[in-house]
């Protein structure tokens, strides 16, 4: 029993270490863009600020919120283990130097985001906005940068594409949306979509 308690605790501490490492990385991204979690990324008219890399900033903010939530869960699990550890005389050294060095932190794949949307385009008609994170593209779920090269072959004129996106509102709240994108050449711009999709994130 004491060994299993210690193993569980060290596993949780390893996960918390990885979260802390990635949190530092994501906060470095915000710092490099000269913003914080509370910085308003919209201008006075409600449009994304042209001086900021909106998709990258929103991806970092979204990831930080996700990581903070995970860290809270891990801390709660560690607190739950503490009475059992004390009961069995198990000493839990929570310093980072005591953690296993064999597990290397592997960052998640880059996400895909909408960098820009052309006016009167199919993407605009679908409701896509600059800064939206793409979570799924039809049956591609979860969507990541490794799928970027596959997307052109999946775009057919007149064939609807079901997208799930994450959008960060001006008050910092994340909202998930399901949108239908209908590729079409019947608009004034180039291409069938009218939006620029880029990899962002870690």
TrEMBL record:
A Gene Ontology biological process noted in the UniProt record is:
proteasome regulatory particle assembly
Domain Nas2 N-terminal per the UniProt entry, residue ranges: 11-82
> InterPro entries, per this entry?
Nas2_N (IPR040815), PDZ_sf (IPR036034), PSMD9 (IPR035269)
Which cellular component terms (GO) are annotated to the entry? cytoplasm; nucleus; proteasome complex
Instruction: Keyword check for Chaperone, yes or no.
Output: yes
Q: Which SUPFAM superfamilies match?
A: PDZ domain-like
> Keyword annotations for this protein?
Chaperone, Proteasome
Q: What is an example of a Pfam family matching this protein?
A: Nas2_N
> Protein name, please?
26S proteasome non-ATPase regulatory subunit 9
Organism of origin is Malassezia restricta (strain ATCC 96810 / NBRC 103918 / CBS 7877) (Seborrheic dermatitis infection agent)
> Top-down, what is the taxonomic lineage of the species of origin?
Eukaryota, Fungi, Dikarya, Basidiomycota, Ustilaginomycotina
